[in-house]
Structures are given as structure tokens and as C-alpha cells.
Amino acid sequence: MAKVLNIKDLRVHFKDAAADRFAVDGLNLSIEEGEILGLVGESGSGKTVTAMSISGLLPREKADVGGSITLDGQEIFSCSEKEMLDILGDKLGVVFQEPMTSMDPVMRIGPQVEECLKNHSRLSRGERRRRALEAMAQADLHEPERIYGRYPHELSGGMLQRVMIAAAIISRPRLLLADEPTTALDVSVQGEILALLKRLNREQNMAILLISHDLNVVRRLCSRVCVMQRGKLVEDRAVEDIFREPRHQYTKQLIAAIPGRDKRLI
Amino acid sequence: MKKRADAFLFAGGAISFIMVCVIVMGWFWTPYDPTAMDAGAKFSHPSLQHLLGTDNFGRDIFSRVVDGAGTSFVIALCVVAIGCVAGIIIGSLCGYYGGLPDLILTRVCDSITAFPAFLLALVIVTVAGPGTENIILALGILFIPSFARIVRSEFARCRELNYIKSAKIMGAGGFRIMFRHILPNTLPVLFSAVTIGFNNAVLSEASMSFLGIGIQPPYASLGSMLSDSQSFLYSAPWYALGTGGAIVLLILGFSLLGEGLQLKR
Prior knowledge:
heterodimer; A: Rossmann fold; 6-stranded mixed sheet; about 35% helix; about 25% strand; B: MetI-like fold; about 0% strand; elongated
């Protein structure tokens, strides 16, 4: 199967860090078409920096980047700014951790969902609206017509995260980058969002890179898990294997840290 | 706090509305021709014929105040428009892109602010000659730095916000992000800056005309009328009171509006 994302020997070094302290240190990672890959690790292990490198959000004046990232066969680091804009939102969709702060407070929901189409296509206004309503329905938003004209502060966190997902999938990207998509949500909504991601993955054959520190979330969604520690990849295996017999000491610690496993909390 | 903001907004809105109505009326109709002299009616007391009396040439002060307020209003609007538009352009580019151009432009703005604003306006008008357009140009240039500074800081703040990053990730280009995503979010701040800037513009124009480098006679301007009325403060106090009152009302209305908006934020 074709590789949607291929990261080779990625190195990221922040200019104000110590000379030998790499935020990401020689990371190799690839995602097959239609695969859901979980990237786990504690805070500061380099997960988010990896995600930022993929989405080109890493400030170039603050960080040195080495290695290569190819998205759908296209090398990201050699892209001009213009080419990067073409990739973002078209081949790559991103869902952030906090839906409340990830939406423009003074813009209606509809136009925000359409943002990708606005930047990448010459569709008419009516056509864009139709596609937006379609994407919102796919993201399990009931009554998309009603939500279309609302402002973000009028919706709940769970609804906003669905809106974010709708915005990310509207131009049918090859890869969806989900950076802790459920952390800011309460548990019942969390489950619904995970189910939604799984369904989108199946229906649209969209690969998902799920970044999380919550192994429970990863276990429910992913087929393969990569564990990062201090910028390095320490384990990369199928999800059942990791939970059955974690090889690396750090992975064992992470699994032991899942609350409610083996021991009852109350 | 909310109640006070509402009271400010209401009072400011009412005063500004009345002033604007009177000014707009003045463009089409004033009780007398503001420049027509009447030797027989010098220094008339305020009466039903002459609401605010007449001046040393027998000109109707009310008509002149309405006309002068209109001139001041238009000048202030143009000045704020120049300052605001140029300030938004400079401030947004500096705030969003940063780097060396930002550093240079910020320093230029700082050094303009370092001069007494008035002195600079004086120099410009002396070189270019007095006249409405030159006053607008001089004051407009002087007003750019304050707007640029406000817009710049707002853009620098917004640039780091999540929803701007997420717009970036959806492939929005620099200009789209600046003017479609960030600018609407800076409007509340910009709005109060505009009201304050408007007041300063009215005052600056009045001071320049007061000093005789603003609107030239025989055309009416609140500043030059105030300067004329000084000589007759004891014989015709209504002259100074009527003119000064107009300036106060014009500024008060917009100040209250600005204050109310700031409290609301």
C-alpha cells in the first residue's frame, strides 16, 4: 500500500535550547493509506513538535529542521511558501486540542467550515455552502443549516470539535492530523468524537495520525502505536502487541499509568 | 459596570446624533448666511432672531457655529480616515510579519511621536501653505503612528492565537489571514481608538485655526471664532460661550461613545 506520510530522520532543534537537546531526534515514521496511527508520549516528548513540522507551523526563525517529510509523495521541507499553502487544508487536515480557541470568534460557523474550499477551489458560493453542509452532516452535526449561521460562542465544546472536524475533512484530505482531539472534552463526548473519527477513516479511506497522551483513546482507535520519549521513537508496533507485551521500559510505565487498569479507583 | 457603559453609550450617542443632525442641516440650510455681514446688528444679544447673538461684523453666530462645526467635523473625519487606513496598513504588516521592516517602521513612528505633534503640523502647514487640504494632510500624517501602534500590537497578539494558526493550516494566505481573520477581531479596540482620534483631530484643528494657521477667514471655523471672540469676552460673552460650547458638545459626544465602548469590551 502507498504511504501517505513518510518521515525520515526528522530532527528539530530549537535555537534557544542546549546544543545537544533535540526536540525531535532522528524520527522515522510512516503512515499507510487508510491507517490510523497513534503517537503517544508524555509532555515534552516531541509529539506536538512532530505535528507542527508536518503542518509547517514550526517557526523557521526559531527552529532548525533536518531530515525529510513527504506527504502523499511531496517533500514538505523543499516546498515554497506558496506550495505549502496548496498542501495545507487540501491534502492535510488538522484538528486541534481546544475547539473553543481554534475558531474565529467573530466569524460565522459556515464560512469557517468552508475556509479550505475558499483557499483551494473556485467553487461558487452556493456550491461551497452545499459542501459545507454535507461535511457538517458527515461530522454528525444535526441540523447543519441551523448551525451554519451561528457564531462559535453559541455552540458547545463537543459541537465545536465536530465543526472543526467538518472543516478539516471538507476537501477530503489524504491525512488527518488530530492533535489531542478529545482532551478538552468530557468523557461521553470523547467517545462520540472517537467513533466519528473511526467512521470517517473507514468511509473515506482517510489516514489519521492521532496524537495523544491517553493510551485508552489510542487503544480504541488505532491499529498501530508509536511511542515517543525525549524526541526519539522508542516503540512502533501493532496496538494489541504493545498492550500485551510492552518491550520498552517507558511503554510499560505509560501503560501502568492508565487509571482503572488492574486496580479499581474507587 | 454594564449600567455605566450603557449610560455613557446612550448619552454619547444622543449628543453625537444631535450634533451630526445639526451639522448635516448646516450644509443645506443655516438661519443666515454665515459670512454675510450686517453693520446694523453688531453685537446683538442672543434673541429669537439671532439664537447666539451676532459678532463684531454683525454675522449670526449660530449660523457660523453650525458652519464651523461642519468644517471641523469633515476635517476631523478625513484626518481620522487617513490615520486609520494608513495605520491599519502599516500596523497590520508590521504586527503580522515582524522582522526588520517592523523594527524600522516602529522606530519611525516613535520618532514622529517624539516631536510635539503640533510643531510638526505647524512645519507642514508653513511649508505647504494654509488651506483645508493641507491641514487634513498634516494632521492625517500625525495621526498615523498612534493608529499604527494600536493595530500593530493587536496583530502581534492575534498572530499567536489558535484560530489564526488553524486558519493558516487550512491554507489561508497572509493577506486573507490579516484582513479576513485578524482585522475583524481588532475592531473593538480600533473603534475606541477612532473615537479618541476623532476628538484629538477636532481639538487639533481648532487649535491650529485658533493660532491662525488653520481655516482662513472669512470661512468659519470653531478655532478661529474662539480666537476672535477673545477680544470681546466682556462685551459679548455669548460669542465665546456659544463657540466653546459647540466644541465641548462635539467632543463630549464622541468621548462618551468611546468611553462606553471601552467599558463594554
